[in-house]
Amino acid sequence: MATEKKEIKSLKSDETVYVAFQNRSPRNVTLYWHDYSGKLVRYAVIKSGGIYSIDTFVTHPWSVSDSKTGDRLFVDNQFVFFPKVQPQEGDEPRYDRFFIELPVYPLLIRCLQVIRKKIPKNEMDRLHIPDNLKHALKYVPDLKCSTYERFSIIDHDQS
């Protein structure tokens, strides 16, 4: 029996939550909102150590990638972050902090990331490495936000 993939997209805008994304990674990162059709919308670049606060909604997913390499990072220990309702005190909104961090990639995936970064695609067949690694370089996808092939990325500032 085939398992159906659930599309990652925003659903409703009825339950507001207040989120502060804190970048604890050593990289500058790009924050993406998954819109109502599942497209990634570029929202902000958060520098290493920086914080970006936003009013959002419970059913609105968010993702983060390295601004330079496109490698995916964790928000609250997951690649796709879904905000949760947090108890509020008083009239002023309280922004709950969620941390952006580097994931621990499996060794094979990390090796592929480094090789792809250092070696041009047209020269990979010339490498003196095992055939299974050459095959992986060609067919194993990078763990980038663009791995969501059905999503297109649009700029929040231009929409």
TrEMBL record:
<feature type="domain" description="von Hippel-Lindau disease tumour suppressor beta">
    <location>
        <begin position="8"/>
        <end position="85"/>
    </location>
</feature>
<protein>
    <submittedName>
        <fullName>von Hippel-Lindau disease tumor supressor</fullName>
    </submittedName>
</protein>
<dbReference type="InterPro" id="IPR037139">
    <property type="entry name" value="VHL_alpha_dom_sf"/>
</dbReference>
<comment type="similarity">
    <text>Belongs to the VHL family.</text>
</comment>
<dbReference type="InterPro" id="IPR022772">
    <property type="entry name" value="VHL_tumour_suppress_b/a_dom"/>
</dbReference>
<dbReference type="Pfam" id="PF01847">
    <property type="entry name" value="VHL"/>
</dbReference>
<dbReference type="InterPro" id="IPR024053">
    <property type="entry name" value="VHL_beta_dom"/>
</dbReference>
<dbReference type="InterPro" id="IPR036208">
    <property type="entry name" value="VHL_sf"/>
</dbReference>
<dbReference type="InterPro" id="IPR037140">
    <property type="entry name" value="VHL_beta_dom_sf"/>
</dbReference>
